[in-house]
Amino acid sequence: MRKKLLILVKIAVSIVVILFLYERISYDFQGFISAFNIYAQNIFIILLVSILMPINWLMEVLKWKYSLKPITKISISEASVGVFSGIALGFITPHAIGDYFAKVFSISHENRKSALGLILISRMLQMLPTLLFGLIAVYFISDFSLSEFDFSYSSSFALSSIIGFVIFGFFLLLYFNRNHPRVKDYLWPIKKLGLKLFVLLSALSIVRYIIFSLQFLILLSVLELKINLFHQFMGIAFMFLIKSILPTFNFLNDLGVREVSIAFFFEKLEVSVAPIIAAGLILWLINIAVPAAIGLFYIPKLKLIYKK
């Protein structure tokens, strides 16, 4: 019953997202088309964002390689199989379930159960910068005047968020110390990560978040938005937060969710959102659609059948 209810909620949210996106594009269709014309005249910008794409996914490949260190050693090429086939399968599954499937079946059979916990911790570490900057963006969008930035108050807000993450991590570690037989196989590799690997994975997650944000900022730079760079970054942070927590059932992965969330934020700044939606679609094509197409060639390399 709960699963059916969750599916209905995801479908409903997806329909709302699509309708909202359609309404915003229809309202300023000329601005939407003009934005694509601007990018057509600035091919260098598209090339620059495209060059950052493989660097972005290299961070994810390295995260997968080093997160597996407690149970097995794999090469960069082997890690690439799990990541890129995961992009392709995650492209057509809700909340990228296919990504879990691909990564699990990209390694040897005897390590698969233990890898699930490592996939989970890798995703949680990627959520840290998303939550931190996203919560700051939520503070901004809740304020009546985003142009007046109370630095001291916002710094306290950010500090409180960090303290909250630390407390959450503390209780998470307490949970990991449990010896429940049902979770022991999943948790023992996480306990073997160690501080050095944990810091490395966290750093790779932050670098990947920065590259994502930089790509979007580069695309927005040619639109001549009448807001400063910091507010643009806050809009991007809000987008990543909503994309990460909103339940959707969209066969095109996060297409639509990112555009709607960033449109909602920039509307508060009285900025025309149609060009920003166009920038979001271009970023989706570069960062998701192209890697997903590449990932199709990696799917046959998955180890679906166990061979001793």
Automatic annotation (TrEMBL):
Keywords: Cell membrane, Membrane, Transmembrane, Transmembrane helix. It is a multi-pass membrane protein. It comes from the Bacteria. The chain crosses the membrane at residues 6-22, 34-59, 114-141, 153-176, 197-223, 229-252, 273-299. It holds the Pfam family LPG_synthase_TM. GO terms for cellular component: plasma membrane. It is found in: Cell membrane. This is Lysylphosphatidylglycerol synthase domain-containing protein. It comes from Marivirga arenosa.
